Amino acid sequence: MEFTIAVLPGDGIGPEVVAEAVKVLEAAGRRFGHSFEFKRDLVGGAAIDEYGVALRNETLKMCRATDAVLFGAVGGPQWDDPTARTRPEDGLLALRKGLGLFANLRPVKVLPMLEDSTNLKPEVVRGVDMVVVRELTGGLYFGRPKRQWRTSKGRRAVDTMAYADWEVERIARVGFELARQRKKKLVSVDKANVLESSRLWRQVVAEVGREYPDIELENMLVDSCAMRLIQHPIDLDVVVTENTFGDILTDEASMLAGSMGMLPSASLAGIPVTGKRSHGLYEPIHGSSPKRAGMNVSNPIATILSAAMLLRHSLGLSREAGLVEGAVRSVLEDGYRTYDIFRDGTKRVGTAEMGELIAAKVGM
Ligand code: IPM
Ligand code: MN
Fold first, then answer.
1. Which of 7, 84, 105, 266 is the most exposed, having the fewest neighbouring CB atoms within 10 Å of its CB?
2. Which tens digits make up the pLDDT trace of 272-306?
3. Could you tell me the residue range of the domain that residue 237 belongs to?
4. For residue 13, which of 328, 354, 282, 261 has the smallest C-alpha distance?
5. Is 89 touching ligand 1 by the criterion CB < 6 Å?
6. Which residue's alpha carbon is at the smallest distance from atom 4 of ligand 1?
């Protein structure tokens, strides 16, 4: 089959890790007889430098016309001025909003050979396999008003956490559908003891839950969830939550898997039911790591696993996705590690070598 994929490497280490994911996709294409046309463009700081905006309209249009978007990372100290008119992150937020990518899936899976690469005790992280469903186009990130102003008594700023019932309903459905494909348990995370938007969230999730009598629903407060994540993470399977809560909890959860360099994500415009394809954007959950840019040391696995999610959710190629995930496991079993997951007794490799080892397994 033929597919078109938008490739937006972005800033910092983005281009390096994305290049390895493209190698792996090409290897999968060769093996199974698919052809991928990659359409590259600038985003984030790179686009600000070249065009003065973090995301051009034509880039958004180009992305809409493709089967999926592969994204690296954006940001860096040179664009960090708090008074700047535009920031690299605006490009990513505009893509999420502009492509209607309301459902962000962040799987956290602890692989047995990396159990001792974390700062937590191996017996705490052993067997952890969860997916956090983060609402991605509403909540505190997008609510209005959102501004900063001067008053006679000093400066003030406001952000707004706002939800409409239909926004909660569709993300709750994503949670329930995934739970149905997994352990039939859903944890909905909110702050309903304090926030009104969370009280609406909790009501709507319960209403949707009536359509899923086979799924056990548990409500958890976000502070409590932050604790449970490191206290007894094995209890969690599918977690659904607000945009900002999901942002914070998934950085925390990434530490269970040893490194942010291991965690992929999929941002989808539809509800992932088996056998249905959704348009989506796929990116590692880590940032642009400007200090390591161009050094060929960063871990490309998060981006490669994101490419596997792209194959599964946007192209409907589950077998190919499974093969890529198996290749990652197999290269780790062979003892190869980038610096972030390196331990004595393993073999240290750079970004490109890790990508080539995985692509070679995919092609075998
Ligand atoms: C993430 C990132 C982004 C976010 C930034 C880069 C805007 O931290 O994808 O988790 O906050 O959503
Ligand atoms: Mn984040």
1. 84
2. 987 789 999 999 999 999 999 999 999 999 999 99
3. 119-257
4. 261
5. yes
6. 247
Whose Cα sits closest to atom 5 in ligand 1?
89
The distance in angstroms from the start CA to the end CA of the chain is 20
Task: Name the residue of 89, 106, 140, 283 whose CB sits within 8 Å of the most ligand 1 atoms, as the mutation to test its pocket.
Answer: 89
In Å, what is the CA distance from 203 to each residue of 178, 209, 266? 20, 10, 26
31 CA to middle of ligand 1, Å? 34
The CATH number of whichever domain residue 134 belongs to comes to 3.40.718.10
Query: CB count, 10 Å around CB of 132?
Result: 29
234 falls within a domain: yes
Q: How many Cβ atoms sit within 10 Å of the Cβ of residue 151?
A: 7
Q: Kindly report, residue by residue over 159-215, the tens digit of the pLDDT.
A: 999 999 999 999 999 999 999 999 999 999 999 999 999 999 999 999 999 999 999
Mutate to test the pocket of ligand 1, among 96, 106, 247 (most ligand atoms within 8 A of CB): 247
Separation of alpha carbons 23 and 352, rounded Å: 10
Are residues 152 and 242 both part of a single domain? yes
Take residue 347 and report the two structure tokens written for it.
């073999």
Three-state DSSP at 279 gives: coil
Ion ligand 2 — residues with CB under 5 Å? 247
285 lines ligand 1 (CB under 6 A): yes
